[in-house]
Every structure is written in C-alpha cells, then in structure tokens.
# Entry
Amino acid sequence: MVFQGPETTTDQDVCVIVGASHAGVNCAFELRKQGFEGRVLLIDADPHLPYHRPPLSKAFLNTPLNDAPPPLKAQAAYERAGIELVLGVKVNDISANDNTISVAAADSSTVHDALPAAITYTHLVLATGARPIVPPIPGLSTATHCLVMRNASDAYALKSLLEEKQPVLPDFHVVVVGAGYIGLEAAASLRKAGAKVTVIEREKRILARVASEAVSTHVASRHEEQGVTILCERNVQAVQQDADTGVQTVVCDNDIAYRADAILVGVGVRINGELAAQAELEMNKGAVCVDAHMQTSRPGIWAIGDCTSFPQREYGENTHIESVQNALEQAKVAAKNIHLLSAAAQSNLLPALVDYAATPWFWSDQFDMKLQMVGLVGLADNQVVRVESDRALSVWHFNGDKLISVEAINSPKAYVLGGRAINNNTPVDKAKLQDGEINLATLF
Amino acid sequence: MIKVIFKTADGQEIETQGESGSLMELAVENNVPGIDGDCGGVCSCATCHVHVAQEDFARVGEPNEIEKDMLELAEDVSETSRLCCQVALSEDINGISVTVVRE
# Structure
C-alpha cells in the first residue's frame, strides 16, 4: 500500500483515524458525507483491504481457501472519497501535546513509499478495537494449532488448516475453549466443514454473559443435535502433548482430558488501549472513556467502537459494547461532531454537538439458527418466553412493564416489532405475547 | 457476465456487471452510494434496500419470509422492494435495473 501523503496545507484540517475496521472505515466515509474538506487518513496494521469481521467466524470459514473476506468498501470507493488508506502501518505513539503520532511499517520487511515518521493531526480518532485473549494456561499458547478468531489472518489460518486436514476431518477433533458467540459460531462452521467439535465452557451455561437462559438452552440443544459436544462448568487446566504418541489433550478439572488436534480460543478480548493510556486519556477497565459526543478526556482526540467506555441513558456511565452496530453508529456520531467543530473553527461559534443514543442490536448465525437481539438484557426483572415452533422462539425482557430487550431465534418479526416497541416505548400485552399461536403483528 | 443497472438517490445510473455473489456485493464492489450492507449480507440490517423496476420484478422474485420481516425496518417500502443481499446474481436477472432507496 502506497502512502499518498501530499503536503498538508497549513490551514487544512487533518483527521487521522487509527484502526480501519467497521468503526474507522465508517467514520472516514461519514466525514466525507458530512462535507469534511480536510485530509482523512485511515491507518491500520492489518494489510488487507478493510473487511467485514462477522463473517470470519461464520460463512467465510466455509468458502474456498483463497476467497478474500467481503470488503467493507471497494478500493475505488476510498480513492473516490479522497480517503488515504494507509494499511500495514502501525501507530507507535501519540504526542498529544504537539498533536502528532509516529508511525512505522507493521511488518518491517515491507517498504512504504513516502511514509513519514510522524503525522500531525487536527483530530485523532482511536478505533483501535480489541484483540483476543489467550489465557495463561500451561501449554496453551504453545499448543499445536492454537487459534483465535478476530482478523482475516486468523480466519485464513483456520481455513488452511481445514483444507490441509480435509481427508481426515471426520476424525479431526477441535476443542473450542469458550462458549460465547465467537466460539459457538466457529464451532458451527467447523462442524459444517466436517470436523469433530467439543466446546468447553467455564460457566454453568453457554452464552452466560450475553444471553438469557432460554436462549442458551435452545442454542445448546441445537448444537448438540448437530453433533457438537458442549461441556459446561469445566475449567481448562493445561494443554499437554504425549511424548510418545504426539497426541495433544486439553486437560480439565479432575484430570479429565479431551483430545485436541486443534484448539480455538474464544474466551473474550482485551481492548487495544495502549495508545490511549500512553496519551494519558481517561480510561475505565481498559477502555477509553468518551462522552456522548465520542470525545475523550483530551480535546481533539476521539474514540469509537469496541475500545470505548461511554455514557448511555439506560445502561449507565461506563457502558462498553462490542458490536458492529455500536461501532458504526459511534463512528457516525464522531464524524458529525468532528465536521461540526471543523466547520465552526472558521466562524468562532461553538456548535451544538450530536449525542450517541442508539438502541444496541446484535446478530449471530449458527447452523440454521438466526439469532437477533435488540436492547440489553441487563436491567430486566421479568421476561416472557414466546415459543412459535420448535425452531423459532423469542424472549422478551421487561423492567416492570417496560420492554427493554428482545432476543429472537428464527423470528425476525419478533426482533423487528420488539425493537420498534422498545424505541417507541409501546406497551405490550404480556399474556397475549406469551401465546405463540397469536400473530405478533396483531399485538402492536 | 450479468449486467445490472443501479439508479441512485442522487440521480446517477451506475452500470455494473458480475458473475456471482449477491446484488449487494456487486453494488459494494462498484461503489454504489446508498448500499451499505452493514451486516455483511446476512439479512440482518436492512441497509441494502432497493426497488426493483416493475417490469423486472417477476424475474427477480418475491422476498423470502425473513427478508419480508426485515423489510419492515426499511423506509419507503414498495411492492417491488428487496434487500439486495438476498438476490443472487444469475442469468435470470441479467439486464435488470434497481433503484437504491437510501442516499
């Protein structure tokens, strides 16, 4: 990737965005849509044209080996929008006092034409995301085929392993550590590819942190029906390799061992907060604190997406959400506010900035299950489970009589109507809701 | 090669051609404004809404059940609305035109 690097004129604003995934890319395009006329630089250490992450653990794993992950935007779109895409480059540090960052090739063997050592910004947007955790379990990080799932290179590694093991896949045993969305999506894709899959989870149930019990139970039974083994309340103690046979095992409590030809670790992420910490930005539990405008504690520095801790009306001062929707909408809020400030700088008027106040939504696809969630379950004190068939159900979460979240499995109608009822604060008849025979559309 | 014309909200007519994948992917490759495909093409976000030209609709066909429900999230839904991530490129749709609903 060539750094385009034209000389910045002194009166031109420069917006540097660190991280070119869902948040960063959408921030760059939204800046242009708003009419921002300064330079926009989008920097990422990942050398691939920015791509959709959600498919990596889902459909992408079942595509041919050399297929590229679906791009967020076409290459030509960046050129046309005047967005300088600087890929394969990492940001080493921020000198917040003189508004500069220092950069270098992420891979020292790559030469970047005209890459300056330092770049001066007017606005700096941190969209640095997070990276998978590999817990310090003896033997895990050095195990044969110990994989994670976050980047294109992680997905390529798993795809090429599946390709290599194709002839022996029915006897190729993958242990997935962690039954969150990433782990379960990967488990479903691996099973579809033909591997043997065991999922090991520390909590009492799968999706314990992110879904209700009814959803966990349904999803677990569908996985088991497809031949995935799910083991809850198991702690992985070590990964061992038999010196004679070379057989690798994941050892859990009470020395129970499971053969593991490969291990996929999906136990969560650590926020990439190093740059923010080094710029002495206010942080909360590793995340970058922003206000409702997406501004950090330091003027001129913004943060968006998975790396943020932000105030949310219902969920509190330090909300942290890892999702595509959160990344996209925070990106748009930051871009609007950067443009407003940039445009106002010439007029000396203080503009009214835009607040982030979106209702969160998520989705996941596993086997033939389409999971869609809207709102956050956290504040609920009662729920209604609506069963439409043995393949379709929805769980409606209330705080008193106020609907705050809906989880839907193969019921997009519940997701759509529920989301609308949450946003409009529409009252819902719980008794009728519970009756899966009653057409949902007649309740709203 | 299958040809598709995208008419955008700002009055452009973008002629595209492709061989496989979805209409949404074709639009993204060709930088068609108003087609975001935020969810990557799994019918979860309703950001790839198009109106199929009336005369072409029979060839493209009705939305599936999930798509019909998700279209409720879109604005300006018409009788020929589709979420174009759910429309696969095939000879059947060669030469159609669609109008992008969002800006």
The mean pLDDT of chain B is 94. The longest helix of chain B spans residues 23-29. Chain B has one domain: 2-100.
